[in-house]
Amino acid sequence: MRLLARRLGFYLLAAWVALTVNFFLPRLVPGNPVATAIGHLTFVNTQVVAAIKAQFGIGIHDSIWLQYVHYWGDLFHGNLGVSWSNSFEPVGNLIGAALPWTLGLLVMATVISFLLGTVFGIVLGWLRGSWLDWALPGATFFQAIPYFFLGTVLLMIFATGLHWFPIGQGYQTTGVNSVNPGWNWDYMVSLLDHAVLPAGTIVLTSIAGWMMGMRNMMVITMDEDFVLVARAKGLPGRSVVWYAARNAILPSVANFSLAISLVVAGQLLVEIVFSYPGIGYLLFHAVTEQDYPMVQGIFLVITLVVLAANLLMDVVYVLVDPRARQEA
Fold first, then answer.
1. pLDDT value at position 213?
2. What 8-state DSSP symbol labels residue 79?
3. Which of 309, 325, 308 is nearest to 317 (CA)?
4. Which of 148, 172, 238, 328 could in theory staple to 269 by disulfide, Cβ–Cβ 3.0 to 4.6 A?
5. Which letter, b or e, does each residue of 265-299 get, where b requires 16 or more Cβ atoms within 10 Å of its Cβ?
6. Considering the domain boundaries, does residue 19 fall inside one?
7. Interhelix angle for 256-273 vs 279-288, to 10°?
8. What's the longest Cα–Cα distance across the chain?
9. Residues 199 and 266 sit within 8 Å (Cβ to Cβ)
């Protein structure tokens, strides 16, 4: 438990730093956020202007530290402000509606890339030096392509050119094939159909890392003494591979949290390219409209999601690795 306690302390410190930056940054950037907010209004009076100024600590007599305390109080009550580019809807409601789309795409793409990369890496490590090694340069090529560029290419080929998949959005909302959201077959099929290209973009750009890491660990593990003993005792090849893979996969599990952080950063761009109704698409519109409360709220949520995912993977690693359990 000592290891998990240290990790938890680190993540709490990282969360505090991120939330503190989230508070001070809009108050330090040049420009006038109040004027930007007023520009989105059709009706303005003194009370509205005063409320907007209070949100950014402009023109009020409280010290910056008292505003900081109030900021934490609002966070604990789930008050992230209002979005002036979305008819002054609460930021929390808008993020709550977009977050499931991002998490669903993130989980699906990450799990697929991890499973495929791990399986291919095991095979390549077991059959090293064979003709299958050609798969590594091909996978590395896709890894070197930026997310947004690969997504644009896939969109042009398979959506605009071949018409195999829809161009964008999360499900079919217009036309004769439009569906109603709910637990029905048509809606589920539409969800998967619209998620193929965004998820495929993420899988293609991230699978090489899993393949190379797993292959290298398999090559090292296959030369370990316990594997040589297993071979000497006449264990079938399939059993030896499974025996070695269980030990070789541990570094991949340890690197899962870092991979999630990188995938989240790339997924935000993918959502913009495919107009996918997640956090990235919401962030793009917030930045273009200079919607500071929305940007702050999204930054906060992304930070907490990444830290929570890292903490979860630390717990999983302690459960699957006996050495980590002994250290904990």
1. 86
2. -
3. 325
4. 148
5. ebbbbbbbbbbbbbbbbbbbebeebbbbbbbbbbb
6. no
7. 60
8. 85
9. no
Distance between CA atoms of 162 and 168, rounded to whole angstroms? Answer: 15
CA distance 324 to 318: 5
Residue 282, in any domain of the structure: yes
Would you state the pLDDT for residue 41? Answer: 63
My answer on whether 242 and 104 are in the same domain is: yes
Which two structure tokens, joined as six digits, stand for 84?
Answer: 């002036």
Whether 74 and 172 share a structural domain: no
Low-confidence ranges of the chain (pLDDT < 70): 1, 26-27, 29-45, 47-49, 51-62, 175-176, 321-328
> Do 101 and 277 meet the contact criterion of CB atoms below 8 Å apart?
yes
In a domain, residue 1? The reply is no
151: Cβ contacts below 8 Å, ≥ 6 apart:
197, 198, 201, 269, 270, 273, 274
The DSSP letter of residue 145 is S
Are residue 141 and residue 47 in the same domain, yes or no? no
In sequence order, which residues have a C-beta less than 8 Å from that of residue 25 and are 6 or more positions away? 296
Number of domains, the chain: 2
The residue type at 132: L
Q: How long a stretch of residues is the chain? A: 328
3-class secondary structure, 181: coil
Q: Crossing angle for the helix pair 279-288 and 292-320, nearest 10 degrees?
A: 150
Domain that holds residue 264: 94-327
What span, in angstroms and rounded, lies between the C-alpha atoms of 302 and 309?
11
| Residue 111: inside a domain | yes
Closest CA relative to residue 229, chosen from 242, 240, 241: 240
Contact by Cβ (8 Å): 294, 85 = yes
**Share in percent of the chain as helix, strand, coil (round to 5):** 75, 0, 25
